[in-house]
Specification:
heterodimer, A: 251 residues, alpha/beta, B: 204 residues
């Protein structure tokens, strides 16, 4: 069974169709990268999967449970406890981190597990310290986001998402807001998560990284899946748009 | 001296208008159109007419409209008039603060599973307080001086006392003294607010 299944997703903004009948599925433990030119709908797809945007058509399900669907023009989103449960399956790492500036690093990570998931404080703190260690930030637990570099902020944001133990973690261009010299540290951390067998869907412009880390790559163009396959298949494909896109990176 | 009365009007007005401003804000941004329109009109009247005139209406209005006995009602009318007036200003200050919080904060909270009220109370409100503090300080300082307007309904507080003494002794000294009191009062207010600002200075 697929962990995430998106079928025939449509989404328009003010009459502009951004997603045109897109279907993707993600298996448990899989690492999927989504690449493609700006405006191709990659981020919108993630925002629909995480229910930050409502879909205009199609169906989204997690572990076989329908989270959202549109039938006869009427949208149906799960509500209440069911919504909470399905929402706990996924986490999202934003392009610009969206850390809470008034919370320390530790509180950013631990507040939701303690006050949303109602887990015991001691256990949550212990886990948070282990996560910070993994992120190479063990000495920063009392710092505030404004005292950290962009790369450190993004690593805290990753720890914050992981602290809720999601089954699948989405990354929306996690390094696009960072200076080039800071992207490396964040990409290394994401790579290290791959060893933990966490399911990941990564929207990225880092081609070498995507080729390296992914089990599967989707190339999106103008709101549709233009190409899909293993990194070798996608990067080696004789596909005009794909080659044109890659050409811009190599130039 | 009437200084105590001025302080009392100031304290009670703040006590009521600060939370009331939040209620007015929620009305202002309500999705129920008639509510948001009514609140908009309310804010516009409160800000668009003199507070002194509003106090006269709150005090004498019930008498002219319903022949109500307004004997012991003066203080209530003053607190009502000042609080409703200041709540309108605070509501707009809150609105500017709340609207300046990036959308990403709400989205992050949603992804982490916070409910609507948790998001507002834990994530949004603390950040809003820091942002609006300088504007609130301005408003509070104005309020200290505006307490003198209640002399228009012949309420005896510091300004009215100063006026009486000045008239009786034909001297401006009481005004100077009263001015000194207002100044010291506001000096303390500004100092306290600065302490609050410093306390919230641990992040930006």
């Amino acid at each position: 069974m697929s962990l995430l299944e998106m079928k025939h997703i449509r989404k328009s903004f003010d009459g502009l169709e951004v997603l045109k009948d897109i279907s993707i599925s993600v298996k448990e433990g899989e690492i999927l990268s989504i690449i493609g030119p700006s405006g191709s709908g990659k981020s919108t797809l993630l925002r629909c999967a995480t229910m930050l945007e409502k879909i205009d058509g199609g169906e989204i399900s997690y572990l076989g449970e329908v989270a959202a669907s549109v039938k006869d023009g009427k949208e149906l989103y799960v509500k209440g406890e069911k919504r909470k449960q399905i929402s706990s399956y996924f986490g999202l790492v934003f392009q610009n981190f969206n850390l809470f500036p008034h919370y320390s690093v530790m509180k950013n990570i631990t507040d939701a597990p303690i006050h949303v998931q109602k887990r015991p404080r001691a256990e949550v703190y212990e886990e948070a310290r282990a996560l910070l260690k993994k992120m190479g930030l063990e000495d920063k637990e009392n710092a505030y986001p404004c005292q950290l570099s962009g790369g450190q902020c993004q690593r805290v944001a990753i720890a914050r998402a992981l602290a809720l133990n999601p089954k699948i973690l989405f990354f929306d261009e996690p390094t696009s807001a960072l200076d080039p010299e800071l992207t490396g540290e964040v990409l290394r951390v994401i790579k290290s998560l791959a060893d933990l067998k966490i399911t990941m869907v990564i929207v990225t412009h880092e081609m070498a990284f995507a080729r390296d880390i992914s089990d599967r790559i989707i190339f999106m163009d103008k709101g549709v899946v233009a190409l899909e396959g293993t990194p070798q298949e996608v990067f080696g494909a004789e596909h005009a748009r794909m080659q044109e896109f890659l050409g811009k990176f190599n130039a | 001296m009437g200084f105590g009365q001025s302080c009392l009007i100031f304290a009670l007005t703040l006590l009521f208008s600060l939370p009331l401003g939040m209620v007015v804000y929620f009305g202002r941004v309500s999705r129920i159109k008639p509510v948001s329109w009514l609140v908009k009109i309310y804010i516009s009247i409160m800000r668009g007419t003199p507070l002194m005139l509003q106090l006269l209406i709150w005090y004498f209005g019930p008498f002219y409209l319903w022949k109500m006995n307004i004997g012991g009602y003066k203080f209530t009318a003053i607190i009502l008039g000042c609080s409703l007036n200041y709540a309108a200003y605070f509501a707009e200050i809150y609105r500017s603060g709340i609207e300046s919080i990036p959308k990403g904060q709400y989205e992050a909270a949603q992804l982490l599973g916070y409910g609507k009220s948790q998001t507002f109370l834990k994530i949004i409100l603390p950040q809003v307080i820091k942002i609006v503090l300088p504007s609130v300080t301005n408003e509070v300082i104005t309020l200290v001086k505006d307490t003198s307007l209640v002399y228009s309904v012949s309420y005896i507080e510091m300004f009215a006392v100063a006026k009486q003494i000045a008239a009786a002794q034909t001297t401006v000294l009481p005004f100077v003294i009263a001015g000194g009191f207002y100044y010291i009062f506001n000096f303390v207010v500004a100092w306290v607010m600065e302490l609050f600002e410093k306390k919230l200075d641990y992040y930006h």
